[in-house]
Design brief:
Layout: E1 4-8, H1 23-35, E2 37-41, H2 46-53, H3 55-60, E3 63-66, E4 71-74, E5 77-81, H4 88-100, E6 111-114, E7 117-121, H5 129-142, H6 144-160, E8 162-167, E9 171-176, E10 192-197, H7 207-214, E11 222-225, H8 229-239
Parallel strand pairs: 1-2, 1-10, 2-3, 10-11
Antiparallel strand pairs: 3-4, 4-5, 6-7, 7-9, 8-9
Helix pairs in contact: 1-8
Length: 243
Amino acid sequence: MHNRVYIFDVDGTLTVSRTLIDPKFKEFFLKFINKHDCYLVTGSDYPKTLEQLGEEIMHGVKRSYNCSGNSVWEKGIEVQTADWILSNKARDWLSAELFASKFPIRTGTHIEDRPGMVNFSIVGRGSTKEERAEYEVWDKEHTERHKIARRFNDRFTKKENIQAKVAGVTGLDIAPKGKDKRQILSDFNEVAVCFFGDMMQPGGNDEPLGNAIYNRHEEDDEVVLVHDWKDTWKTTYGSYYRE
């Protein structure tokens, strides 16, 4: 494989979770995607990703795999979507977990339906930046999301073939097993892949794609763990950017 494509997660990789891309990094990233074949893969829906990154980037990348690849976009047009819906039993179970959580803040939209998946958040999608940061600190201490994901998977993976993965700093992504970020790899059988993500740990929503790339055993493939958008900027500029 001689050709290489670059695939980027969004939250935690190109931006602070759910916030706008840094203007100076955006300027650099636009130059990068103009010189390389680049793709996005994120658990967020397209409107949210468009809000975070802007039209120039969204139209500059080859494709945006939103909702973990269950909603696929090219230059503002959705070219593929999934119609899976979470069962009422699983939805009721998540509602019970929301009620039982000891974290005190609730901001609404705790179970958000997206194409082919659901995002679950204790603090809620209506949370402010400060409230998300507060939950992030609390979750690091109590590992609540990992515990909820484990209980969810123990209960529903075998029965309903669905799986929860930790995503971003406040949420869980839930989708049919195999319909996570790894599913996009079938579009890249003929090229080398370099994937950037921040949630590569066991149970993280970047892990399935990272593992799938490793398991191809292609010497030109690469999986790059980053810690934030500054790390992505430094790594891409130092190792992959060319004038």
